[in-house]
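Input (structure):
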């Protein structure tokens, strides 16, 4: 993304999972990329063109109590999307746990099923290329 111009990042996470300082310094700041940090998923919702969500990953924690406290910190639902742009693209690597409510699945802005489908085609093409099958 740092190769594109006129982009901005909104980094949304609890303080325990903030992006490391070296990434901010070595990538974002080095490339003069504007960014904002928040722990409130709704604070910048109306400004987002793309919302890339992922689950809070248990394997990122040294302490299970911290994971339990934060695992449901962000849950995207229809109500949180009320202020979002009509052409917002919501992405997620799937599978989800509960970070995106199933009531979002029917929203036109939910792109994660298409994302998974396109990923399947890319993997198929890569496998064919590796096997040297045309």
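Output (sequence):
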């Amino acid at each position: 993304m740092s190769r594109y111009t006129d982009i901005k990042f909104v980094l949304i996470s609890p303080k325990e999972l903030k992006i490391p300082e070296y990434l901010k310094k070595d990538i974002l700041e080095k490339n003069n990329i504007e960014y904002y940090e928040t722990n409130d998923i709704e604070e910048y919702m109306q400004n987002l063109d793309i919302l890339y969500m992922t689950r809070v990953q248990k394997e990122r924690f040294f302490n299970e109590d911290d994971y339990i406290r934060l695992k449901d910190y962000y849950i995207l639902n229809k109500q949180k999307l009320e202020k979002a742009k009509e052409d917002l693209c919501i992405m997620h690597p799937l599978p989800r746990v509960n970070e995106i409510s199933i009531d979002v699945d029917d929203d036109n802005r939910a792109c994660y099923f298409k994302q998974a489908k396109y990923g399947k085609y890319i993997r198929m093409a890569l496998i064919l290329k590796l096997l040297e099958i045309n």
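Notes: The chain has a mean pLDDT of 93. The first strand starts at residue 8 and ends at 12.
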